[in-house]
Write a structure and sequence with these properties.
By secondary structure, the protein is α+β, with helices and mostly antiparallel strands. The protein has helices at about 1-15, 20-35, 120-125, 130-135, and strands spanning about 40-50, 60-70, 75-90, 90-100, 110-120, 140-150, 160-170. The strands form two sheets. Strands 4-3-6-7 form a four-stranded antiparallel sheet. A three-stranded antiparallel sheet has the order 1-2-5. The chain is elongated. The model is unreliable at about 1-25 (pLDDT under 50).
């Protein structure tokens, strides 16, 4: 018991806080870690599926979410939840909801990519079919992803998980 108190006091002196305030420091450290992460929509690949009757058509999309981790901690992105839309000629068209679960790891002071594959039926995207056709023709399109990225700070089920907001856009096509 005496040894534990001594270690706690020494730890407090080493990290510059009073014994018993480590949880507050941990919260501040987590916030600092989150603020250092950088996200980008690196690439969006859209592949229309044309079929007859038209109701059997659809749209397959692969989103490449880039994650820069300049911190000294390895992170494990676990999930991506959000909304995907395209903007053409200043008009936004909702494509659908992104709900992706897949664990990957991003090394400390490293970069990684989370590839998210989505498939929409014609009925899901019928209101945006003309802009989707324009994407297939290479016309300028801005893709927007707004949602949350679930990140684990350690491997396994006992690690701390965080939800980090992501609001990203990427313009594709010929200008």
């Amino acid at each position: 018991m005496r040894r534990a108190m001594l270690c706690s006091a020494l730890l407090g002196l080493c990290i510059g806080c009073q014994p018993g305030t480590a949880p507050v420091l941990a919260g501040a450290m987590l916030e600092a870690l989150i603020n250092q992460l950088h996200f980008s929509l690196d690439n969006v690949e859209a592949r229309p599926r044309i079929a007859f009757p038209l109701e059997n058509s659809g749209l397959d999309i692969t989103i490449h979410l880039g994650i820069d981790n300049p911190t000294s901690n390895q992170i494990w992105p676990q999930s991506l939840l959000g909304n995907l839309e395209i903007v053409q000629d200043g008009k936004a068209h909702a494509l659908g909801r992104v709900a992706h679960q897949s664990a990957t790891s991003i090394p400390a002071r490293g970069r990684g990519t989370l590839a998210v594959s989505l498939s929409f039926r014609y009925a899901d995207v019928v209101n945006a079919w003309q802009p989707i056709s324009n994407v297939a023709l290479g016309r300028p399109t801005t893709w927007k992803l707004n949602g949350n990225l679930g990140i684990s700070l350690g491997p396994g089920s006992n690690s701390r998980s965080l939800s980090v907001p992501v609001n990203l856009s990427k313009t594709t096509g010929n200008r």
